[in-house]
């Protein structure tokens, strides 16, 4: 299998879907010659032309809104929001329109819209360019959310998202773009709503997604040296959420740690914890723990940012404490 | 009454236009009654007084052209050829309504007739209509999109973003502002420093046109060149229709923010009464025919109410269905 970077995998998904389906087109700020703020669309303008790789003014609400209008009238737009923080400006269009049309207007309303957006910190971009806001969208019925952790998933899940008749938010972590991994050749898609076990283990379940899959795997390797076998579940898609895979793992290990970069209160981990408490409480040998960013804006100073974001150490400490109970 | 409208219309066209205006009026007046007596729950934003805008704009459109609507949207749906029965049933929350009872007064669409939806967010439809125009352009469908919104919506960012984008990309859109002088209780002059919303078009590089929104033919006359321009690939136009809502903003509005005198001067310019007077004066349509048109509209609304009343409510298990297109139990 070929090794590709994450950004190349995203780009391959876009290219293949644009070749396969003339209704697919891209829209966003600086996605043309510039290639997008993180380079995922570089080269596509030259390949497909300005008609299908549409550079827009800085108008987030209208980028998403125009995507909705194009989607309901027969196109399949993939729009890029330059930083996930800027979905705030498009929130009305996403939450009140894209996500609700199918329910309000009935089966005639299909919104095959994909919103791609880079999330996460780790680069000292400060509080308005570092957030992981995906948990917000778990609270908006009607929009799917994918958060691929590997190049193969970036390609396969994005291709499925583009073919889906629903709005899909694709969360791409900034620190993943340059990572590499094997990506199968050709038209391989990954289904939405299926988590993956990235590492088998018997002592504790670590549930996470996106960039933190890698972080959790590092923690698991370190724990293994102390004889603790952690199972790492990569959610891959947050909506639909594959609760079954999480429950099966927890039934096996009896312990759960939810790991995410978003802030703790009302986060993805809170939802996972609640579902496990509802469905598999009797299998738990210890309280559920969450590793997340505290409820703060992401600070600028590298030392503060480092202190704020979850780390391998924190995961190891949490797991070790849990096993001592 | 102020001067009657005079524009050429065939007798058949005159009858059709008068019927559409009257249908929208009778429909809204009936809805208000049904809201007051509790038959219809929730609120409603009556279109009474503004009918000439929707009917006039749609006169200039082809059947396959698209419209996108607002919270005050019953008139737009009817003018585009919507089914009064399904509209009324939706207001009753019935399974036979446009959204199976899940949308309600502010949230219904009929894509088959080119109606892309009303919605409850002021300014929310403007970028979506813009995207529909983008899609029409990319698909080469030759369709034009009429984007309806109020004066209040033009102070939303989406208005400015969308007009800029549409002008930049020469999208086949016509932005139809219904300036009824108020956004709820806020007069236009308290929300915007310039008098004419049409003047805002200059900032985006598109024509801005003012039209008498109490004259259906004036609206149609303003729309036609804009639609032609859009269809020819020359880009969008902003049309400001000066109009007035005769009734309150919604069912609970006591209209304390405006005078009865002001209302009376606008009532004097009632678009239906003016057109009736004009066609009678030109002997285009007889008064007996006018009476028949009014009776027809009432009969259609009666039928819509009966249909809505006798329709079933949605199945309760349907409440969780249809959130996603591929929902296995979606209706
Ligand atoms: C984003 C948003 N803000 C406020 C409201 C409440 N609201 C509903 S209609 C309305 C006035 C809109 O005025 P205008 O756009 O002029 O339309 P009109 O009601 O006059 O037809 C307001 C403030 C809303 N529905 N959406």
SSE order and pairing:
The complex is a heterodimer of chains A (325) and B (331).
Chain A lengths: L1 E4 H15 L3 E5 L15 H5 L4 E3 L4 H13 L3 E5 L6 H12 L2 H5 L8 E6 L14 H5 L5 E3 L4 H13 L4 E6 L6 E4 L12 E4 L4 E5 L2 H15 L4 E5 L2 E3 L3 H11 L2 E8 L4 H13 L8 E5 L8 H7 L3 H13 L1
Parallel strand pairs in A: 2-3, 2-4, 4-5, 5-7, 6-7, 10-11, 10-13, 13-14
Antiparallel strand pairs in A: 1-8, 6-12, 9-11
Helix pairs in contact in A: 1-7, 3-4, 8-12, 9-10
Chain B lengths: L10 H26 L14 H9 L6 E3 L5 H6 L4 H8 L33 H15 L5 E6 L6 H12 L4 E7 L2 E2 L2 E2 H4 L16 E5 L3 H16 L5 E6 L17 H8 L3 H11 L5 H24 L21
Parallel strand pairs in B: 1-2, 2-3, 3-7, 6-7
Antiparallel strand pairs in B: 4-5
Helix pairs in contact in B: 1-2, 1-10, 1-11, 2-8, 4-11, 5-6
Thiamine diphosphate binds next to strand 2 and strand 4 of chain B.
What report would you give on this structure?
The complex is a heterodimer of chains A (325) and B (331). The termini of chain A are far apart. In chain A, strands 3-2-4-5-7-6-12 form a 7-stranded mixed beta sheet, with helices on both faces. In chain A, strands 9-11-10-13-14 form a 5-stranded mixed beta sheet, with helices on both faces. Chain A has a two-stranded antiparallel sheet with strand order 1-8. Chain A is built from 12 helices and 14 strands. In chain A, helix 1 packs parallel to helix 7 and helix 9 crosses helix 10. With 325 residues, chain A is of the alpha/beta class. Chain B has 331 residues and is an alpha/beta fold. Chain B contains 11 helices and 7 strands. A 5-stranded parallel beta sheet of chain B has the order 1-2-3-7-6, sandwiched between helices. A two-stranded antiparallel ribbon of chain B has the order 4-5. In chain B, strand 6, helix 8 and strand 7 form a beta-alpha-beta unit. In chain B, helix 1 packs antiparallel against helix 10. The longest helix of chain B is centred in the N-terminal third of the chain and has 26 residues. Chain B is globular. The termini of chain B are far apart. Classes of the chains: A alpha/beta (325), B alpha/beta (331). At the A-B interface, helix 3, helix 4 and helix 5 of A face helix 5 and helix 6 of B. Thiamine diphosphate (TPP) binds next to strand 2 and strand 4 of chain B.
């Amino acid at each position: 299998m070929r090794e590709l970077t994450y950004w190349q995998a995203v780009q391959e998904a876009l290219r293949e879907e644009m070749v396969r389906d003339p209704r697919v087109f891209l829209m966003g700020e600086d996605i043309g010659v510039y290639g997008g703020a993180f380079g995922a669309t570089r080269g596509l303008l030259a390949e497909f032309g300005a008609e299908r790789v549409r550079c827009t003014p800085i108008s987030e609400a209208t980028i998403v809104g125009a995507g909705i209008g194009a989607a309901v009238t027969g196109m399949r737009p993939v729009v890029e929001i330059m930083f996930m923080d800027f979905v705030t400006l498009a929130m009305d269009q996403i939450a009140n329109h894209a996500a609700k049309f199918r329910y309000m207007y009935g089966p005639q309303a299909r919104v095959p819209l994909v919103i791609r957006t880079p999330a996460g910190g780790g680069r000292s971009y400060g509080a308005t360019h570092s957030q992981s806001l995906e948990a917000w969208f778990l609270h908006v019925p009607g929009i799917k959310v994918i958060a691929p952790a590997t190049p193969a998933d970036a390609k396969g899940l994005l291709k499925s998202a583009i073919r889906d008749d629903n709005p899909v938010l694709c969360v791409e972590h900034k620190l993943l773009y340059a990572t590499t991994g094997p990506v199968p050749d050709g038209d391989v898609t990954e289904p939405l709503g299926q988590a993956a076990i990235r590492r088998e283990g018997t002592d504790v379940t670590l549930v996470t997604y996106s960039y933190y899959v890698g972080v959790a795997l590092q923690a698991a390797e370190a724990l293994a040296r102390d004889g603790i076998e952690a199972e790492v579940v990569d959610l891959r898609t947050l909506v639909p959420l594959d609760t079954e895979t999480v429950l099966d793992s927890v039934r096996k290990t009896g312990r759960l740690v939810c790991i995410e970069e978003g802030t703790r209160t009302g986060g993805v981990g809170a939802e996972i914890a609640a579902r496990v408490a509802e469905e598999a409480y009797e299998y738990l040998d210890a309280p559920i723990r969450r590793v997340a960013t505290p409820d703060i804006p992401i600070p600028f100073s590298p030392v503060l940012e480092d202190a704020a974001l979850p780390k391998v150490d924190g995961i190891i400490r949490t797991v070790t404490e849990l096993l001592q109970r | 009454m102020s001067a009657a409208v005079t524009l050429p219309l065939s007798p058949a066209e005159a009858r059709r236009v008068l019927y559409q205006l009257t249908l929208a009026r009778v429909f809204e007046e009936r809805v208000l009654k049904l809201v007051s007596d509790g038959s219809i729950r929730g609120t409603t934003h009556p279109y009474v007084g503004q009918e000439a805008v929707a009917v006039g704009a749609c006169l200039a459109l082809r059947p396959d052209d698209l419209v996108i609507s607002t919270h005050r949207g019953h008139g737009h749906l009817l003018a585009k050829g919507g089914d009064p029965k399904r509209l009324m049933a939706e207001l009753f929350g019935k399974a036979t309504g446009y959204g199976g009872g899940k949308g309600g007064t502010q949230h219904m669409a009929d894509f088959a007739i080119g109606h892309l939806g009303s919605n409850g967010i002021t300014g929310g439809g403007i970028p979506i209509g813009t995207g529909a125009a983008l899609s029409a352009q990319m698909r080469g469908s030759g369709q034009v999109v009429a984007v309806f919104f109020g004066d209040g919506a033009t102070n939303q960012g989406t208005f400015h973003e969308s007009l800029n984008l549409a002008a930049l990309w020469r999208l086949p859109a016509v932005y139809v502002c219904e300036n009824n002088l108020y956004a709820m209780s806020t007069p236009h002059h308290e929300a915007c420093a310039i008098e004419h919303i049409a003047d805002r078009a200059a900032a985006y590089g598109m024509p801005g046109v003012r039209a008498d929104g109490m004259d259906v033919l004036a609206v149609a006359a303003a729309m036609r060149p804009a639609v032609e321009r859009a269809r020819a690939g020359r880009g969008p136009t902003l049309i400001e229709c000066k109009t007035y809502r005769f009734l309150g903003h919604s069912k609970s509005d006591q209209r304390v923010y405006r005078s009865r005198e002001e209302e009376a001067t606008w009532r004097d310019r009632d678009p239906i009464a003016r057109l009736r007077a004009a066609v009678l004066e030109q002997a285009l349509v007889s008064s007996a025919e006018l009476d028949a048109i009014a009776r027809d509209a009432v009969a259609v609304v009666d039928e819509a109410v009966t249909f809505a009343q006798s329709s079933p409510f949605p199945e309760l298990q349907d409440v969780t269905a249809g959130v996603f297109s591929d929902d296995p139990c979606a209706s």
